[in-house]
Amino acid sequence: MNESNRRTLFLVLCVVALLHTGAHISQSFVNYPNWHLIDARSFPAYHWGITIRAGIFLALPRVLEVAIGMALLRFRPKGIDRWVVLVGLGLALCALLSTVLISRPIHRQLDIQSNKPELLSRLMATDWIRNVLEFFRAALYVWVQSRLINNRRAFGEGVV
Fold first, then answer.
1. pTM exceeds 0.70, yes or no
2. pLDDT band at 149, cuts 50/70/90?
3. C-alpha to C-alpha distance for 94 and 4, rounded to whole angstroms
4. Which of 75, 68, 103 is nearest to 89 (CA)?
C-alpha cells in the first residue's frame, strides 16, 4: 500500500471515530437524560426501536473502527507512531467492553422493567466510563491530524 493510501486509511479511521463519538455524545447528553419523560408503558417499544438504530449508528462504526485500526497496525503512514494506533485501538476496545459488560446489561433491564429512574441513573452514571474513553480517543486523533497538517506546512507541501 502506498503512502497516500496509508494516510487516507488513517483519515478514514479518524472520520469513523469522530462520527462514533458524535453519535455517542448525542445518546449520552440528549437521549438518555430525557428517557424519564417517556411514559413507562410506551418505553419498551421506543427502546426496542432505538436499540436497533444504535446498532447501526454506534456498534457498526465501532466494529469498522477496530477493523481499520487493525489494518493500520500493518499499513501505518509515515509520521504516525505505532503507539498512537495502539492507544486508539485500546481506547475503542475498552469502550466496547464497557458497552458489552456494563451498558448492555442495563439496557436489557430497561427492556424488561421499563424506564425506572434507578436504571436510568445507573445508565447515565456508568456511561461516563465510555464518555471519557471516547473523549480521549477523539482528542488523540485530532491531535495527530493537527501534527500531520503542521508537518506538511513545515516541509512546504501543499496545504488545502
1. yes
2. confident
3. 30
4. 68
